[in-house]
Design goal:
The complex is a heterodimer of chains A (389) and B (181). Chain A has 389 residues and is α/β, with parallel strands linked by helices. Chain A is built from 12 helices and 15 strands. In chain A, helix 1 packs across helix 2, helix 3 packs parallel to helix 4 and helix 6 packs across helix 8. Chain A is globular, with a radius of gyration of 21 Å. Chain A starts with a strand and ends in a 13-residue tail after the last strand. Chain B is α/β, with parallel strands linked by helices and 181 residues long. Helices cover 33% and strands 20% of the residues of chain B. Chain B is built from 5 helices and 6 strands, in the order E-H-E-E-E-E-E-H-H-H-H. Chain B has a 6-stranded mixed sheet with strand order 2-3-1-4-5-6, with helices on one face. The interface between A and B is medium-sized, with 30 and 24 residues. Strand 8 of chain A pairs antiparallel with strand 2 of chain B.
């Protein structure tokens, strides 16, 4: 049923519809409303799960790891510093190959302290071995949350659902949280075949000597890559049930004959889509939403970029001292094309800076013929000390 | 598309006002979005919230810099910049009895009405009701529906009487021509 809901509230209801047995989380802005609402649903008797109050994000991640190891469907959510505090456990969850679903309400990292949205937090753990899915709106956040449990359990891999903090989590709009019966049909009860069981003891995460470590890592890499087939398949199943697609690996909108493309991750995709209508000079641009960042959908991206002469990557994080994170990966993937587009990389909207509708025409007008070094497009140079400007 | 900004102080139900208006619009088949000024909200501190309303679907998530309407919850609000960015032809609905000069403005003693009907000094619901009456954008029943999603029993009844009273205190349709979508 389509209802007016705050993004966090809708995500909480999607989580509860997935019937997790254990939820453990520590509140942090802008994730707090998600966990508060799950707690309310549990307190009101509308959700049956063990809600574990913990004293830190490290414990939250550890609790869901333990719960998943004994076969529970487990969920957590965090943001920003919480992601970093969890990071050691995140690598362990992935390396132990246990299915866990986590929402990251994307937020900038300290220092300097910022509670506002960018995607530096989830990008900081992109190598942790989790699937990473980015949501462009709240409906996608709901649909992706439910899909994430199925994907995690099928592949025995953890899945991170990345949702822009405030921009999505704190916005009320019309959202469909699917009926329980539909979710139950899509997401059957789960049995973890490697669950810890004193009757059948197994060891996990023990010391692995050099003669096996690389092989364990290779298997993990292979498992993540196999998600490239499962993500679109599950999304197609979901679309059959709900009539809605989340885009699978990525979503492409606009002119198939376009010469210019703009790629982004997350909620500025919708602003760019509206900008194309408001600014007719941008009407011919092809927009790409990179929904799946891990595993990296290189082949699908090459297909999506076919015919483009130039591609602008707008990212919400970067690697200081190097440049764009997404840009570098996109460039590497496209290098295998016979005629790859020129890739221009920019960061925008860092630490909550607004990405307005006129950013798209300004960006396209300012685009040099040949890509320059990575830069922050919406930087206000007048605020920099003279030597740095 | 109609864009609004709501000013008030933390604790007055600013975000609730924005959510109520967007909920009422969605109930009536409009496309709507409501969001707070992103940041840390503190009781008593000046806060803002925003609403976008349109007959057509929209996908943008940028900030609202040039609202068509302002709802100012706190008559004592002397925060500089309250009127900043108001779109040309925009209008202001303010709690209390005094209206700002040089712009089209309507005052409604919303805090007093809320005190009278609810026993609490929360002007948000009365102002949303008055806004709907001024613009005739949505029937008052849509706001009643939005309230039913939030309240039950005697609290709901008091709120329903409050919105009737608030709507009756402003000139109906005065801003009807200003609503464009």
């Amino acid at each position: 049923m389509i209802e007016p809901l705050e993004g966090s509230q809708a995500i909480a209801r999607a989580v509860v519809a997935a019937r997790p047995q254990v939820v453990a989380a520590y509140p942090i802005t802008p994730q707090t409303h998600i966990v508060e609402h799950i707690a309310k649903l549990v307190a009101d008797g509308k959700a049956r799960c063990e809600l574990v109050s913990v004293e830190s994000e490290f414990s939250a991640a550890s609790v869901v790891l333990g719960a998943a190891m004994v076969g529970s469907r487990a969920y957590t959510a965090t943001a920003s510093q919480g992601v970093l505090l969890m990071s050691e456990v995140l690598y362990n969850i992935a390396g132990l190959r246990v299915p866990v679903v986590m929402t990251v309400a994307n937020r900038a990292l300290s220092a300097p302290l910022s509670i506002w949205n960018d995607q530096q937090d989830s990008m900081a753990v992109r190598d942790a071995g989790w699937v990473q899915l980015y949501c462009s709106d709240n409906q996608e956040a709901v649909d992706t949350t439910i899909q994430a449990f199925r994907l995690a359990e099928r592949l025995e891999l953890p899945v991170m659902v990345c949702v822009d903090g405030f921009t999505l989590t704190h916005t009320l709009e019309a959202i469909d949280v699917p009926e329980q019966a539909l979710v139950d049909g899509f997401l059957p009860p789960y049995r973890f075949r490697r669950a810890l069981d004193p009757q059948h003891p197994l060891s996990f995460g023990t010391l692995v000597a050099p003669d096996y470590y690389a092989e364990m890592r290779a298997l993990h890499h292979q498992a993540l890559l196999s998600a490239l087939d499962h993500i679109p398949e599950l999304d197609a199943q979901w679309a059959q049930l709900t009539g809605r697609s989340t885009g699978g690996l990525l979503r492409v909108e606009g002119d198939p004959a376009a010469s210019t493309g703009v790629l982004t991750l997350g909620s500025i995709f919708g602003t760019l889509a509206d900008a194309r209508e408001v600014h007719p000079e941008c009407g011919g641009v092809r927009l790409i939403h990179l929904r799946t960042f891990r595993p990296f959908p290189a082949a699908a991206l090459r297909e999506a970029c076919r015919g483009l002469e130039r591609l602008v990557v707008l990212e919400r994080a970067f690697s200081p001292g190097a440049g764009g994170i997404v840009t570098a990966e996109v460039r590497a993937a496209l290098a295998e094309m016979a005629q790859p587009p020129r890739v221009h990389g920019f960061a925008v909207g860092l630490g909550g800076r607004d990405v307005p509708l006129d950013l798209l025409p300004r960006l396209l007008a300012a685009l040099p013929d040949q890509p320059g070094p990575f830069s922050i497009f919406d930087l206000d140079r007048s605020k920099l000390p003279e030597a740095a400007s | 598309m109609i864009e609004l900004r709501i000013h008030g102080r933390g604790g007055q139900g600013n975000v609730v006002a924005a959510y109520l208006l967007a909920t009422a619009a969605i109930v009536e088949g409009w496309h709507a979005q409501a969001f707070p000024a992103f940041g840390a909200e503190r009781r008593g501190a000046p806060v803002t919230a925003f609403v976008r309303l349109s007959r057509e679907p929209f996908r943008r998530r940028n900030q609202i810099l040039h609202p068509d309407f302002l709802i100012i919850q706190d008559p004592a609000l002397r925060v500089p910049g309250v009127l900043d960015g108001l779109a040309a032809g925009g209008a202001v609905l303010v709690d209390g009895t005094r209206v700002p000069e040089a712009v089209e403005a309507v005052a409604l003693p919303a805090t007093r009405l809320a005190q009278e009907y609810l026993g609490r000094p929360v002007p948000n619901t009365a102002l949303v009701a008055a806004f709907l009456a001024l613009t005739r954008m949505l029937p008052l029943a849509a706001l009643a529906h939005a309230l039913e999603r939030r309240f039950t029993g005697p609290v709901l009844d008091k709120n329903l009487r409050l919105i009737e009273a608030a709507a009756a205190q402003v000139e109906p349709g005065r801003w009807q021509e200003r609503v464009h979508d």
